[in-house]
Amino acid sequence: MSQQILDQALELGKLIAESEEFSAVQEKEAAMLKDPAAQELLKEYQQLQQQYQQKQMRGEQITPEEIKAFEEKEVKMLENQFINEFHKAQNKFQNLLNTVNETINKAMLEKRGHQHGASCSTSG
Q1: CA distances from 119 to 35, 112, 115, 124 (A)
Q2: Could you tell me which of 114, 45, 112 has the C-alpha nearest to residue 77?
Q3: Superfamily name with CATH number, domain 19-123
Q4: pTM for this one?
Q5: Which secondary structure element, helix H or strand E, spans residue 56, and what is its range?
Q6: pLDDT tens readout for residues 6-45
Q7: No. of H helices and E strands in the chain?
Q8: How far apart are CA 38 and CA 60, in angstroms?
Q9: What residue spans define the domains of the chain?
Q10: Are 96 and 19 in contact (CB under 8 A)?
Q11: Could you give the C-alpha distances from 56 to 40, 61, 67, in angstroms and in order?
C-alpha cells in the first residue's frame, strides 16, 4: 500500500508542476532574476536579513531602528514590479499547496470520523 501512496504522490507532484500557479512562479522568478534593480534590492534585503539573524544568534537584541530599516527595505523591495509580481505568484502557488494539503487532511479526517463513528455507535 505504501508504494501506491508514493505513486499517487508522484502523480500529484506532476500535476502541480503542470499547474498555472507553478508556471507563473517560474516565469515571474525568471523575469525578476533578469532585472538588475530587483537583484540589487534582493541582495540588500538578504544582507540585512543575514546581519539580523547573526545578531540574534549571538544573543543580541535587534533595535526598533533596525526593525524599521528592515521593514522599509521590504516595502521598497515589493515596490519593484518584478519582485512584486513574483511575490504575488508565489502566494498563489502557496495557496494552491495549502488547499491540496487541506484536502488531503479533510479526506483523512473523514476516514477517521467514519471509523470512530462506527465504533462509537456499536459501544453506545
Answers
A1: 61, 11, 6, 9
A2: 45
A3: YheA/YmcA-like (1.20.1500.10)
A4: 0.78
A5: helix 36-57
A6: 999 999 999 999 999 999 999 999 999 999 999 999 999 9
A7: 5, 0
A8: 30
A9: 19-123
A10: yes
A11: 24, 6, 12
